[in-house]
Amino acid sequence: MDNFQTRVRIPPSPPIKIKPIYKKYYNRNRQPRVRINQWIGISPIRLIDEKGQNLGIVETDKALELAREKGLDLIEIAPTVRPPVCRIMDYGKYQYQKAKEERQQKTKQKRIEVKGIRISFRISQHDLETKAKQANKFLDQGHKVRIEMILRGREKGLFEMAKEKLNKFIKLISPEVKVEQEIKRQPRGLTVGVTK
User: Fold this and answer.
1) Alpha carbon distance 81, 77 (integer Å)
2) Separation of alpha carbons 183 and 194, rounded Å
3) What is the Cα–Cα distance from 1 to 94, expressed in whole angstroms?
4) Quick one: which of 11, 92, 190, 196 is 20 to 30 A from 26 by CA?
5) Residue 175, burial from CB neighbour count under 10 angstroms (0-12, 13-18, 19+)
């Protein structure tokens, strides 16, 4: 009877690790929060009122009372400076002004695109002039231009002639063009980058 009642001991399985899915995307666009009102823990602070006048160094409690009397918020503007700079103003207005400044900075940033022009080894003189005008137009707009010369078949063996034709095209564009990237050999032909 003892043989039937023996117990089988199963070793415990290792704990299952569950990785949260949201963690990868959680802190993607988070910016440090601006401390306002009672969340400003440092005392004393340098205080600026709603009109932009400097009230000097004040205790945080007094600054909070002043802000509440005026029906506004106390916002920490420069937290890294000692003592930190705080301003009395409406928090919604402060957020709007910050967003507006960010939008203005984005519009002021000049975007430089790399425009591409392709020419072939057997291109005619008139087509070369037309492409040169197009490249000049891109350069006048402030863009960089990457010129590609496509070589097919046996044309790949005529590397020196292709290089001469590419140099001729660069001179045709404009005399003040600067060669940013020297002529490089690519699998499909030659490339060169130019700017004004």
Assistant:
1) 10
2) 10
3) 84
4) 92
5) exposed
Give the Cα separation of 31 and 45 in Å (integer): 23
Tokens coding 169:
């095209």
Per-residue pLDDT at 175 exceeds 90: no
Structure tokens at 176: 């003040």
Sheet containing 73-78: which strands, arranged edge to edge? 54-58, 45-48, 85-89, 73-78
Q: Identify the band that residue 34 occupies on the pLDDT scale cut at 50, 70 and 90.
A: confident
Residue 83 has φ and ψ, to the nearest 5°, of: -70, 150
CB proximity list for 138: less than 8 A, separation 6 or greater: 115, 117, 145
pLDDT in tens, 111-138: 778 899 999 989 899 999 999 999 999 9
* Tokens standing for residue 106: 């984005």
Measured CA to CA, the distance from residue 164 to residue 74 in angstroms comes to 69
